[in-house]
Amino acid sequence: MYPQYPYYDKEVECEEKPISFPPQHQEQHPGLEYPMVPRPIAENPNYTGSHKLHDKVAIITGGDSGIGRAAAIAFAKEGAHVVIVYYNEHRDAEETKERIHQLGRSCLTISGDLKEERFSYHVVQQTMQTFGQIDILVNNAAVQYPKKSILDISTEQLETTFRTNIFSFFHMTKAVLPYLQRGSTIINNGSVTAFRGHKKLIDYSASQGAVITFTRSLAMSLVDQEIRVNAVAPGPIWTPLIPSSFEEEDVKTFGTRTPMERAGQPFELAPTFVYLASDDSSYITGQVIHVNGGEIVGS
């Protein structure tokens, strides 16, 4: 039998093609979590924190839903206060904020456009006014616009993709850096497409390649300050990015080509972010951790 996640039919046997997700598509991008069927699983109820991030303050871009939400909840379970930066997905952000408060941690939500450099400085200013410190930056926000050919990718799309997926990482890092102390961490969320490409996501894959090189170069630049920089490269993960970018037919089989024959859930990445944010990874910088259902790619 396949792993018993909600989107698998309990009657499906191993020799049959695994069931993925009901066909669905959202017009709003990067998408909303609350209307998805099924809802992504952001939290592992069996995950118990052990104060690895006690009283740390973490900024998570795209923290309202998907991988960002899962990381935010796990950070809160480890004792961190969280700043969620998001575009305009207000209901998703409020749900995440409510859960963090239930876990006894503070949560600040800030809505705005990360493509604009000045917004990053606004985020940092609000964070410092509220908490007086910044210890962890998770650059996670991203967009993707599948196209059949590079001829279909407009200059506007190319600029939007890079301004969201890598420019915002630069902007947030520059804004945060003066407030980081020794032992602080930066985690950049990348993608498996940086290593193997994707024929329908040429501009997105290129931007993710930039994220990986940015991570390695920044780690070298900050090592003398004892600020560690690492990246996570997820494979297919069930987040709002998927139904808001792919067509319904692609959603139906999303994730089934991995060795595990299923997409991952956001909560399955959360411990990786905790590991890279905590002292458990004190001898790791400039590295990429692959969470992709078993696909072997270059590191």
UniProtKB/TrEMBL annotation:
It comes from the Bacteria. Pfam families: adh_short_C2. Gene3D superfamilies: NAD(P)-binding Rossmann-like Domain (3.40.50.720). Keywords: Oxidoreductase. Belongs to the short-chain dehydrogenases/reductases (SDR) family. This is NAD(P)-dependent dehydrogenase (Short-subunit alcohol dehydrogenase family).
